[in-house]
Design a protein that fits this description.
By secondary structure, this protein is mainly alpha-helical. It has 13 helices and three strands, in the order H-E-E-E-H-H-H-H-H-H-H-H-H-H-H-H. It has a three-stranded antiparallel β-sheet with strand order 1-2-3, with no helix packed on it.
Length: 323
């Protein structure tokens, strides 16, 4: 490189630096009055402190919207990459190969490419479950997701049930008990802890274990893991029953008042919360002149009409007790 070329390159760099410095000075000085300007990051504006002129607006914030004070908090809040979840045995950190035999443009793969993808899926499944513990966890979490979908339980209930099952597996509580029984018990406990309880009969319908094994396993899991599961409140069943029966908000309000009066009268203890909730919905529907039969309420609550009639009479007795 010649001396003249080097001299020209140096002069260009000096000119670019001077232009950059001038631009920075212009940004730091108000073009109207020459006062100092400040950047309001909350509103995305650059404002003059003296005359109040908005020099720039709608500035782009290229940083994250969250704050972190240590490395662990920064890692937990960062959204780079796929999110981790307890509902998968590997917490969602492994690779998933889709079952569709199509490329990124939606075109079908050739015969040799389909065979190659099938071999990759097979080896991927083998690597994802390396030992019996991971195979156990994969089967159980699949059962939890299937039952939660059948029962219409939200995402937080599924996550909590997955954590409970992982704890039971880590503390070696599974020997002598079926995977389905422990998975159903974890989901039943999680639903009650989250305030979206389901009855044992409803759990037994979607589960592959009977009601007696479910009850026995549930008590064992709660006792060994020291889970704080409060008794189910009849009011927690009301929104679901009212929604399934397509009743009005006024009926739900009346049902809540009936249960509250029964609680003050002391007749809730020792009674099934599902039966009390169903009877309260039936009684409230009659009070609000909505047509619903005991059979329809029993089908939604999965209890017999006899139970509804017995609880219905007790609620009416509590209604007539003076406050």
């Amino acid at each position: 490189m010649s001396e003249s070329t080097v001299r020209n390159t140096t002069e260009e760099q000096v000119q670019e630096r001077d232009i950059g410095e001038e631009t920075t000075e212009q940004q730091d000085v108000c073009p109207e009055c020459g006062g100092n300007v400040t950047t309001d990051t909350e509103h995305g504006e650059t404002v003059c402190q003296d005359c109040g002129l908005v020099v720039e607006e709608d500035s782009i914030d290229r940083g994250p919207e969250w704050r972190a004070f240590d490395s662990s908090e920064r890692d937990s809040k960062s959204r780079v990459g796929a999110p981790t979840t307890n509902m998968m045995h590997d917490k969602g950190l492994s690779t998933n190969i889709g079952w569709q035999n199509k490329d990124a443009y939606g075109r079908s793969l050739s015969s040799s490419q389909r065979q190659k993808m099938q071999r990759l899926r097979t080896w991927n499944e083998r690597f994802r479950t390396r030992d019996s513990k991971e195979r156990n966890l994969k089967q159980a979490l699949g059962e939890i997701d299937r039952m939660a979908s059948a029962l219409g339980l939200p995402q937080n209930v599924r996550e909590t049930a997955s954590v409970i099952y992982r704890r039971a597996l880590d503390e070696d509580l599974l020997p002598g008990r079926s995977i389905e029984g422990v998975a159903t018990s974890a989901l039943y406990a999680s639903a009650r802890m989250a305030g979206s309880p389901r009855s044992l009969d409803e759990m037994a319908v979607v589960s592959r274990v009977d009601k007696m094994e479910l009850t026995r396993t549930y008590r064992y899991i709660v006792r060994e893991l020291n889970l704080e599961v409060k008794p189910a409140d009849p009011e927690q069943y009301l929104p679901r029953f009212v929604s399934d029966l397509d009743l009005s908000d006024e009926t739900e309000r009346q049902a809540r008042e009936l249960i509250e009066r029964a609680r003050k009268a002391g007749i809730l203890s020792g009674k099934s919360p599902v039966g009390l909730a169903a009877a309260a919905v039936y009684a409230a529907a009659l009070l609000t002149n909505e047509k619903v039969t005991q059979s329809e309420v029993g089908d939604v609550a999965n209890i017999s009409e006899v139970t509804i009639r017995n609880r219905y009479k007790e609620l009416l007795e509590a209604e007539n007790v003076p406050a």
